[in-house]
Amino acid sequence: MYPAMELRLPTWISDLVETRGTVFPTLASRMAFVIELARKNIDHGGGPFGAAVFESESGKLVAPGVNLVLPLQSSLAHAEAVAIALAQRVCETYDLSSPGLPPMELVTSAQPCIQCYGILWWSGLQRLVIGARKEDVEQITGFMEGPLPSDWIQHLAVRPPLPPVTVIRDVLREEACAVLQQYRQMDRPIYHPSSA
Amino acid sequence: MYPAMELRLPTWISDLVETRGTVFPTLASRMAFVIELARKNIDHGGGPFGAAVFESESGKLVAPGVNLVLPLQSSLAHAEAVAIALAQRVCETYDLSSPGLPPMELVTSAQPCIQCYGILWWSGLQRLVIGARKEDVEQITGFMEGPLPSDWIQHLAVRPPLPPVTVIRDVLREEACAVLQQYRQMDRPIYHPSSA
């Protein structure tokens, strides 16, 4: 009776993963990968944001994500949301900190907005690695980030009984900002409610 | 290469909608419907939360949602997230405040957590109608709500250039709390990360 909502990656991402491999040993290599996702996503009609879930120790790619708000016509389909949703499918659990799983992290080309901060909160991921900061996103592109609590990092760091989430910022920040600048220069849409 | 994530309603919901109809003229009738969703969802292995998107003026049901975290093994699958995701599929847009659409609202049996607050933020919905409060959820069930900004209602009320979202609380609050109490008494799981 009601249609289903499906988050599915475009096929170009599988091709890219085949080229780049599935192990990214350093944080810089993981960030470079999600920035490449963001850049290529613009060419495919998506927003300038890329993200992925990795196993923190091995650097194994669990699931990539890109912003698919326009292609899927869904405001949920931010890059971080897609990566987390698909990582939970790959691992077949709602809890990426389940016993038996290695610690995992979200690497994202730009600081999560209020939605993706909340999705991260319940995901079981234990580290958040960020390229561009909130002020970069808002000043360069005009995209808003929403009302994050001012102490959003501290809230993640100490939240018993939930496992803490460590935040690392400014990884390849300039390269991450360059993609945002590219999007702006192309005069592409800011897909907020009522501002289409 | 990567599996897709699908938010799909269980078939019992279509049966219920067939019985209850698709027009709910008053806020109380809308809330009674989502509370019924929450109660029936417990019997089907889901969490004690129900929500739906309605056209605010006519009361027409656009899309229902229930908590499917355990059935779908997805931490995204909160009732509000499901209702909003499916409403955007029904209306074929990422923006439920698009020109040509009537104003729509989210009616939820319990106050949205940090994740669903963020999802609401970008949805284009223009009213939020709540049964049980955050403190009801946390004290009765043990489910956490996450770090909402302390002035979360005010943030929704004034947020240019985005359309404002009006919040109405305490609609059938006691009835909404009764479902939470039922869940607790059944000793059902609190599906947080690392607390399975």
The helix tally of chain A amounts to 8
Global morphology of chain A: globular
Largest interface: A-B, 64 and 64 residues
Radius of gyration of chain A: 16 Å
Quaternary arrangement of the chains shown? Answer: homodimer
Helical residues, percent of chain A: 25-40%
- The CATH topology of chain A, please? Cytidine Deaminase, domain 2
Q: Report the average pLDDT across residues of chain A.
A: 96
Given helix and strand content, the structural type of chain A is: alpha/beta
**Separation of termini of chain A?**
29 Å
Uncertain segments of chain A:
none
Please tally the β strands of chain A and state the result.
6
CATH architecture of chain A: 3-Layer(aba) Sandwich
Question: Concise description?
Answer:
Chain A is α/β, with parallel strands linked by helices.
